[in-house]
Amino acid sequence: MFGRLGMWLASLALLAAGASAALAEPLPRVLSDADAGRYARIFEAQRHGDWRTADRLIGGLQDRLLLGHVQFQRYMHPTAYRSAYAELHRWMKAHGDHPMAERLHALAQKRRIAGWKPLPGPWVARLELPAGVELPAARPATRAEAAESGRTGHDRAVLAQVRRNVLRDRMTVTENMLDGPRGQAMSPAAMAEARATLARGHLSKARFERALKQGDLARQGPGGGMRAGSFYAGLALWAMGRHAESHYRFAAAADTAPDHIGHMGGAADFWAARAALAAGRYAAVVPYLRRAASYSRDMYGLLAARQLADRGDFEWSPPGLTAAAVEALMAANPAIRRAIALTEAGQIARADLELRRLSRRADARGSALLMALSAALDAPATAYRIARIRLNSFGERHDPALFPLPDWQIDEGQPIGRALLLAVARRESGFDTRARSGRGASGLMQLMPRTADYIARKSGRPPPGRAALFDAEVSLELGQSYLAYLMTAVEPDGSLLHVLAAYNAGPGNVREWQRRFGDRDDPLLFLELMGSLQTRLFVRDVLAAYWIYRDRLGWETPTLGELAEGRWPFYSPPPRAAAPVLIGRGGIGAD
Questions:
Q1: Of 112, 266, 562, 567, which has the highest C-beta tally within 10 A?
Q2: Where is the secretion signal located (predicted)?
Q3: What architecture is the 155-275 domain classified under in CATH?
Q4: Domain ranges in the chain?
Q5: Fold assignment, 418-586
Q6: 354 tagged catalytic
Q7: Which residue among the candidates 175, 428, 477, 528 is catalytic per the annotation?
């Protein structure tokens, strides 16, 4: 019954050491060791509906700071407890600032009793720090994104119609519309974007001549549409074997100052370098590779850096966070004390919820400290969320928070290792254990319930049920099994591009793309021709994160070398003996 508790007790010293490693000074304690152990046993007992044991342990608590979390777990138990309205009302009055308050408030509204006092609503206190608190150091990002320029209402309506038509493969109708009065009323920038969208649609159907024509028409306009059209025209020429001609289109895409970088990233620069090499324009290769490498956390940037023998500039030293700064955070908001106490009790996911809720009301200085504290407390969802906001809003880069290493139990003896699992979880859920998509994909690994049941049965396990998918370790275990299954579900076995595409789009779509484009032995071209933008971005993002995680773990990156050389990257299991996590500066070097 208490298997998870045993694992927590065995690793308590390691958790404490890991938290302190991210601080310039020791992390202040909130709970005594005795209370931390009691809370851990309370949460475990209540998970199984053992209220008698839980009540006995609650009676022995010296610090009742986490009773709001304990009561929430009990009142919202899916099967073993039915909460009364009076209990829910009292909880909202006492604990309305807790991260689960919205869920409990919704239940209380359904069970409301006429004649009671008004039901208190959820609330979040702002996190504002006094001046003089030392903030963690940050590094500037290598590339910053600018905002996209505005469009007219007519432009937006026509572009929306173009996108719908392309999804339905109504290409000729769309081309006629753009040639007619509706197209003539568009701004040049919107027309260029519409033509580029058409070019992208033709590429996905292997209609390369028509893709080239629409891409070249897009090149006549300004802005992002011109850049995208040039890139898609270059891909069409490359797919037809006209590599030398493609260089001019890729170079036009790479040399155009974009209105917004969007999903292009370092792709245009990398393909311009690739085409320059194929065309014999050797002097242009290295400058384009250097520009591509400036997108240092993008797949194409990492490929370019590998070709330049550049190890990169990763900084894995944890953000400095003084004890005085933590004390200031605790004084500024009670949620900080609860979050630290929860980690001391082994409740990382609950601590993450506290910090994430608070981050939405933190000022710029508070969010920087919250990010560092989240990393120190092994709360990856909040650390990652804040790090992305600070990257996009302030141009700051915090590598340990952008690529966190949460202390989740992962079976390191399986072929699918920690680096690939974390890379997928980072893209799928942002490390949010409660994530759920509109289609029903749930948990860290965003598995559909039917997929999870199928994989569980194939592995000889009982179906997990929808609620279990929100358990981090269940989700990781099933994701690990699903990735292992996909390694042989699509051909060729173990091809990382095909496996990741199948994880996102399903094996059936990957087989269709193989049928359409599979005669070209060019993995990067296959990636760019995939019919789903979501899948292309998924593969690019997961590959980049996978290589970066292997670097952080001190492992070699053979698939990065394979793809940089134009070969299919085939997955290789991680080292059986886990390497120590690198602390300090890192880089993706030669294998």
A1: 266
A2: 1-24
A3: Alpha Horseshoe (1.25)
A4: 3-110, 155-275, 418-586
A5: Lysozyme (1.10.530)
A6: no
A7: 428
